[in-house]
Amino acid sequence: MNRLKHTALTLALILSTLTLGAQTDNYFLHTVTKGQGLYSISRMYGVTEAEIIALNPGSEVVIKAGQQLRIPQKQQEQTTATQMTETEGQRFHTIKTGETLYRLTVIYGLSAREICDANPGLSAENFKVGQVVVIPKKSAPAEQPTTQKVTEPNPLIGAQQAQDDEGDEQPILSTNIKNDNCKTEHYVKRKENIYRISRMYGITELELINANPELRERKLRRGETICIPYAQNEQKPEIVTPAPESKPQEPATTPSNEDLFAESKEKAQEIEQIKAAIILPFMLDNATGSNGDQAKMVEFYEGFLLALDSLKSNGVSVDLRIYDSGNGQQSINGILSQPEMREMNIIFGPVYEKHIAEAAAFADTTGIKLVIPFERDVEAVFTNPHIYQVNTPQSYFYSEVYDHFFRQFPHPNVIFFNAPNEEEDEMVAGFKQELINRNAPYTELVADTATNKDVIRSYFDLERENILMMTSKKSGVLNNMMPVFQLLVRDTTTTKYNMHLFGYPEYQVYTNNHLASFYEIDTYFYTSFYTNNLLPQAINYHKKYRRIYSKEIANRYPKYAILGFDIGYYFLKAMHLYGTDMDNRLSEMEYSPIQTGFKFERVNNWGGFINRKVFFVHFSNEYELQKIDFD
Asked: Of 11, 221, 454, 501, which has the maximum CB count within 10 A?
């Protein structure tokens, strides 16, 4: 009876283990990073927010950086990793303790080059536990090479070819085979090793070593010819007497991450003349020419041309093509299909959602860099490694603001002034949650002139920095409260309090009306775009723009004429300096923009780049203008 109970318990444990195994094969783990929300995570993995919530109850309420989420594995859900077939699509893999790139190649039957190509953001430095990598679809198997009437390669020509075709993984076959157990022979090229050659011919490392016993005692030598045996499950064309079997031995070492990444990454190339294209809605067929968006695009283009002029004087050569995308209803595939477009190194634009989707698909196919200057919500950036999104997605942008806020004000006491009849802003809602998470006190009052200074002062804290903040970005709400805030500052009973006004990027447009008040109240606002018109760089740019175009730059947020200059100068200079290695070296760029902050980071190992630059502008009560860069 006891034995029967023991057997039943054992079976239950086995079934439990099998169930757990099935679950872990149907999902993988994603570690939330700063700024990520359910929307961005779902776009990364091609699943819905509802599917993520189903595996992670409570995630619809809040998720935090560092939290692990279960993400459903959408591809080949009914098969294990080692049972993938050529018809199955990509899947995702979370790196576990002890795993290496070499281990992934064994698990999924792929080459290191295939994995690295699918994950351009992956490197030996960031190959760490918890990182998620995309496992690409297996390539269709190549036809087995035959040995009929193939001319034996000349060793001298082969040596030169090994230098010219470094990294080429196409087998070099020979019919002059001296050993009947050899299917063919392989001429060893530079940087080839046992691992790469065995994968090339679909055999194991042990099979290759057993066919070439001398490799047990020494390394491969460039220029030598080695025997490629038939695979264990492959039928030989004729029966042969097998050689005396020797004891198999494991290779002395397996390839390191550093070695595999070094072999799998393409060598950087210089670009002597950069071929660039701009695709923007200039709407040249607009008879009136008075369209507001059209004026912005013209200013952007004018600034871009000034960047080319500056780059030219520094020895940068650019061949620029300009295309009018028209309104958002028509397709730009006619532009993208023009032969010269495939020769481009980089494309700037377009603007509209439909056009961005078409340009992103083109960039994904061709590998051409695509810079999206204006749009915040670019879904393709989460899956397309060639996209640079200048305007930061809101969730990433706000997470940077919150982080910087607490670095600037470690012990805040925030007083929010709610705008009547106005829905709460996404930034404010997130900010309140962040205050709760950090145990920082806050109060909510009504943004109305009836809210007098004595009421506000009653909520001040002597031990903390008292932050006044509107919940609305509209100028009217600010106009109502500014006189009240000024009375607070001027009240001698309030001087002992540490008080600041904290606002939005739009505040820079309001400086014409409130500059003196901003200084008096000690105002901060966050932004990614700001021009200090008192700096020599800005003064000289405005003079040059005025001289060439005979007009002033429109007072917008951002200023498009300066945005075009900053973006054009930044990317074209980087491409000039780093060539095809720009993706990996952009952080090394030394450039002080006039207006636009740049800090590009990949959203994941297989996606594109988003700009995460945020800084604070401070109008101090000592009448100093400061730009606070937290990086």
From this structure: 501
CB 186, CB 196: distance < 8 Å: no
Task: Decide which of 3.40.50.2300, 3.40.50.880, 1.25.10.10, 3.30.70.2190 is the CATH code for 273-392+534-598.
Answer: 3.40.50.2300
Q: Of 24, 34, 15, which Cα lies nearest the Cα of 614?
A: 34
3-class secondary-structure state, position 114: helix
Write the CB contacts of 391 (distance below 8 Å, at least 6 apart in sequence).
372, 373, 374, 375, 376, 528, 611
CATH for the stretch 155-236 = 3.10.350.10
Per-residue pLDDT reduced to its tens digit, 396-431 = 999 999 999 999 999 999 999 998 888 888 899 999
Which residue in the block uniquely carries the two structure tokens 């098969």?
A: 79
Torsions phi, psi of 280, nearest 5?
A: -135, 155
Mode of pairing for the β-strands spanning 132-135 and 225-229: unpaired
Which class in CATH covers the domain with range 26-135?
alpha beta
Dist. CA 25–CA 210, nearest whole Å: 35
Residue type present at position 42: S
- Provide the pLDDT confidence category of residue 178 given band limits of 50, 70 and 90: low
The secondary structure of 520-571, three-state, reads HHCEEEEECECCCCCCHHHHHHHHHHHHHHCCCCCCCCCCHHHHHHHHHHHH
How does pLDDT run across 56-110, given as a tens digit for each residue? 999 998 899 999 999 999 754 434 443 443 435 689 999 999 999 999 999 999 9
- Tokens 């100028």 sit on residue: 475
- Residue 309 in 3-state DSSP? helix
Entry pTM: 0.78
Cα 401-403-404 angle, rounded to 5 deg: 65
| Domain ranges in the chain with CATH number 3.40.50.2300 | 273-392+534-598
In terms of Cα–Cα distance, which of 568, 544, 542 is closest to 316?
A: 568
Q: Identify the CA nearest to 381 among candidates 44, 46, 630.
A: 44
d(CA 331, CA 374): 19
Burial of 196 (0-12, 13-18, 19+ CB in 10 A): buried
Query: Do residues 42 and 49 touch, judged by C-beta distance below 8 A?
Result: yes
SS3 letters for 1-63?
Answer: CHHHHHHHHHHHHHHHHHHHHHHHHHEEEEECCCCCCHHHHHHHHCCCHHHHHHHCCCCCCCC
DSSP three-state, residue 514 = helix
Buried b / exposed e over 437-470, threshold 16 CB at 10 Å, is eeebebeeeebeeeeebeebbeebeeebbbbbbb
Residue 97 DSSP one-character state = T
Q: Is 476 helix (H, G, I), strand (E, B) or coil?
A: helix
- Integer Cα distance of 267 and 487 in angstroms: 64
Q: Are 325 and 352 in contact (CB under 8 A)?
A: yes
The matching CATH number, chosen from 3.30.1340, 3.30.70, 2.60.120, 3.40.50, for 395-527+618-629 is 3.40.50
